[in-house]
Structure formats: C-alpha cells, structure tokens
C-alpha cells in the first residue's frame, strides 16, 4: 500500500458494515511521533512514580466506566464473542489495578559494600521512548500489557495498532488520553506493515527509540529482532504458537474436552495461545476423540452477540490464511467436528448456526485426527478454528512431540498424577504451562511470553515486565574521605585454615 492510503475497517459479522476509515501514514509519521515522544519523555519521567501510578489508576477507572461500549466495539470490529470482549476489557482494568500499586514499588536496593564508609545502591530508570506494534486479535488488552507498564516506568510511547482493529485502537487511545497524560506521552500512528518497518528503521537510526515491543507473527518478529540487533537493542517479542495439549491415560476426559473446546475454538482459534495439537495417550485416544467430536458438533457457532463458542474470523486476510491451512489436510487425516469444512455458506451450512452468515466470515470448527509429526498441520500455526489430534505411548514421547514444532509459548497437560505434571513441566520448552486447564488464559500478575519461535524470552505482565521498560543503574557512594579501590583496599580477616579437630 502506498502512504496516504485510506483503510476501511469493516465488521467480520457483515463485510458491508464499515466500522471506521483511517489514513495509513508513511514511515516518516512514525519518526515524527518518536520525536514528539522524545521531547516529552524527560518531563514525564520527572513526575514521581507514585503520581504516574495515579494516572494509571485514572486509566483503569475510565476503562471501567466505558467497558460496555468498548467491549461492544471490539465485538463489532473483530467478531470476538461479547463475553470474551468483556473479559478482554476487564484485562485492561486488572492491568491498571496491578500497576497502580507498582508506582509505589519501583524498588531499587541498598547493597552493603566490601569497604567501610561506602554504600552501594541500585535504581530503576526508564528506558526512554518505546515503540509498540500490536496485532488486532486482542485489540485493547494486549496493547495495555505494553503501554501501561511503559508509562508507569516513565517512558513515552509510540503505538502502531493493527489496521483492521482501527476503531478499537482509537477508542483505547481516546480513553488513555483522557486520564491526564501530557501531550506527546502517548502517540498513535496508523500505518501498514512495510511503512511501519521503514519508520521504525528510521527512528532507530536517529536514536529516537530505546525499546521496541511487538506482538504478531514469528516471521515479522524475526525481521524486527534483526533490525533491533543492528542497533544493539533487545526487543520484547511476543509471537505465534503451536500450543500442545497432552491428555494422559489417567486424565479426566470430560474436563480435557472442555479445555480443548475453549483452547482450540475460543476466539475462533485466533489467539497466539490457541490449542494447536491435542497429543492424546493411545489408550484413551478413541474415547477422547469421540467426546471432543460430540462437544464440537453440539457447540453453538455464530453471532458473537449471542452465547456462542465462537464467531467470525477477524478479517478477510485471516479468512484467506485459514483457507490455506485447510488446504494442508491430507488423505491420511480424518476430518470431524461439523457438517462441513471451510466457510459457512448456504451451500455449506453449519448445523445449529445462530444469526446471519451470508455476509460474515464464519467458518466451520474442524478437528483433524491422525496428524503426523512431519505434517504442515502439526508444525505450523494455523490461526483459525482447527484442532489437530495425534497419539503418544509414553510421556517422554509426548514431551518430544510438544517441543517438535519449535514454538514455545503455551501448553497444557491433563492428568490426575502430579508426577506427570511436574515431569511434563520440566521437559516442555513453553514459557507457560497449564495443568488441567486451557492453553489460553492470562492473568495480569503472571509473566506472559514464550521461547523459540514464540519469542525471545521477554515477558509481559506482572513485575517481570518492568525489566522490559527499565534499566538498572548502580551507584556507589564513598564517604570515607579517601580513595578506596575495590578488590584492593578491602579489610582482610586472618583465619587458621589448617585447624583440624583431633
């Protein structure tokens, strides 16, 4: 797309419903926003951290007051079931509630020196300007994971949201801006991917950006990581996932089916933490599959304003991407779960569908049994309502299969044996492990993030994200009145190390 292109965000419930239109700006707009952020940063950092925490508290109260309107906008623009959209908005409130208190707990440490009349200290300092780039599947919750702690720590922010969730992003920005943030502290830029990359490259070259946060695909994350590396920066990368769920021979199968249903099909399978492959012990495979198929066939799909398992896909480009994933189904696979596969149409109906599907991006839930370790469906993120199923014989094999795709975001194990749970935790490479729970689900005070193809080990949420948006500074204060040299002018205590009991 050329700079200045007007992007029209339409509802996936009805592709003729225009939610908003925004002008996609050139890369130079991101550079200019970084300059504004740079100009405002020192003054914002000079505001005492507890006072910055009060601003975060204001944001939380404003989000709470506008929660229903924001949730309904999210549902209209990206098709997320209203119950899930309300939960997403609550995630912002929870994040603000947590970091409101952290404004009074940006602790450093007082450290004893090895020399007399000398004291050592550590301090957390803001990194400076943070450039945040987010996807639109969680158009308001995930940005808050970056923006809230970044602002609390005294940084200023340039935020580039996804185009297809532009209305939700603008509403997020408007609420945050009403909470008392000074001019230039939070900046929003709408742009396409290539212009964003060009702008980020320019801003880094000018020394305007000190930290990059990115949520999106593994492929784009690798490009951003490479760019930041050239400027000796470590970005915060939260990328895709192919999240395994192991079902052991002693698992509660009904609970495992409920977990698989929500993890695989909640948000139409468009979460980075969505279930990729259910790895089921061979002794319970047939019964687990039978129960999962029945539950999937009985699940209500359709209008996200109703009580449904999932609604439409996010946008036409994701619908096209999911069609490509469905094309990876092979003759050795057994496909179950619905009255059809692919897009739900008059000629390809879904039993029990609620609402109007004619102009929406609705797809059948799909279970693919018999996936193999060398299948594309086993190795690659599908980002849609599809669950692969395979079998294993012993737990070591299950762990090996879970690690094989090379992602490392989330995983789950269903078992009644604590030993299996801990063996699985120790062997799996994921950053997040659930026991008898879904692969999806985050809490504001727990670290969120992945390894391998899912990220570079950075973590969001809780106190752990503070290390992304602050840098440690140490200070030594010598009040002895003389120059004391570390490791040389230390007091030595003599000991008789040859002493032995007789």
From TrEMBL:
Domain Aldehyde dehydrogenase, chain residue ranges per copy: 11-474
TM spans (from-to): none
Record GO terms (molecular function): aldehyde dehydrogenase (NAD+) activity
Gene3D superfamilies: Aldehyde Dehydrogenase, Chain A, domain 1, Aldehyde Dehydrogenase, Chain A, domain 2
A Pfam family: Aldedh
Entry's family note: Belongs to the aldehyde dehydrogenase family.
Subunit structure: Homotetramer.
Name of the protein this chain belongs to: aldehyde dehydrogenase (NAD(+))
Record organism: Umezawaea endophytica
């Amino acid at each position: 797309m050329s700079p200045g292109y007007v992007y029209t965000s339409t509802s996936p419930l009805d592709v003729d419903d225009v939610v908003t239109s925004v002008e996609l700006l050139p890369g130079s707009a991101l550079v200019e926003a970084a300059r504004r952020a740079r100009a405002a940063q020192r003054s914002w950092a000079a505001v005492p951290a507890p006072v910055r925490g009060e601003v975060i508290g204001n944001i939380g109260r404003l989000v709470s007051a506008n929660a229903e309107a924001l949730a309904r906008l999210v549902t209209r623009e990206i098709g997320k079931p209203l119950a899930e959209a309300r939960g997403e908005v609550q995630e912002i409130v929870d994040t603000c509630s947590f970091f409101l208190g952290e404004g009074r707990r940006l602790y450093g440490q007082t450290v004893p020196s090895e020399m007399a009349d000398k004291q050592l200290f550590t301090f957390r300092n803001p990194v400076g300007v943070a450039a945040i780039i987010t996807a639109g599947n969680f158009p308001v919750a995930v940005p808050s994971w970056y923006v809230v702690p970044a602002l609390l720590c005294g940084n200023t922010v340039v935020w580039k949201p996804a185009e297809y969730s532009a209305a939700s992003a603008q509403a997020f920005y408007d609420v945050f801006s009403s909470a008392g943030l000074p001019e230039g502290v939070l900046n929003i830029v709408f742009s396409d991917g290539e212009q964003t990359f060009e702008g980020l490259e320019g801003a880094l070259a000018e020394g305007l950006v000190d930290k990059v946060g990115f949520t999106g695909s593994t492929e784009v994350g690798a490009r951003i990581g490479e760019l930041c590396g050239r400027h000796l920066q470590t970005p915060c990368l939260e990328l895709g996932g192919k999240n395994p769920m192991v079902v052991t021979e002693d698992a509660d199968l009904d609970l495992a089916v409920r977990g698989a249903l929500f993890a695989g099909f909640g948000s139409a399978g468009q979460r980075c933490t969505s279930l990729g492959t259910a790895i089921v012990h061979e002794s319970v495979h047939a019964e687990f599959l039978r129960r999962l198929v029945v539950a999937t066939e009985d699940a209500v799909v359709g209008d996200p304003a109703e009580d449904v398992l999932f609604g439409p896909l996010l946008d036409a480009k994701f619908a096209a991407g999911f069609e490509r994933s469905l094309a990876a189904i092979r003759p050795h696979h057994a496909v179950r779960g619905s009255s059809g596969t692919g897009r739900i149409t008059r000629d390809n109906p879904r039993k029990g569908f609620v609402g109007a599907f004619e102009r929406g991006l609705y797809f059948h839930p799909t279970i693919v049994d018999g996936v193999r370790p060398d299948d594309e469906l086993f190795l690659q993120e599908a980002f849609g309502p599809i669950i692969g199923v395979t079998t294993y014989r012993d737990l070591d094999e299950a762990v090996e299969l879970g690690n094989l795709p090379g992602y490392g975001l989330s995983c789950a194990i269903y078992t009644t044996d604590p030993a299996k749970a801990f063996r699985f935790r120790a062997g799996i490479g994921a950053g997040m492990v659930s026991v008898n729970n879904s692969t999806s689900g985050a809490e504001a005070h727990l670290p969120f993030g992945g390894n391998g193809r899912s990220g570079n080990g950075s973590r969001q949420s809780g106190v752990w994200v503070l290390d992304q948006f602050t840098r440690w500074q140490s200070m030594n204060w010598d009040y002895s009145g003389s120059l004391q040299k570390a490791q040389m002018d230390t007091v030595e205590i003599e000991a008789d190390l040859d002493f032995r009991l007789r």
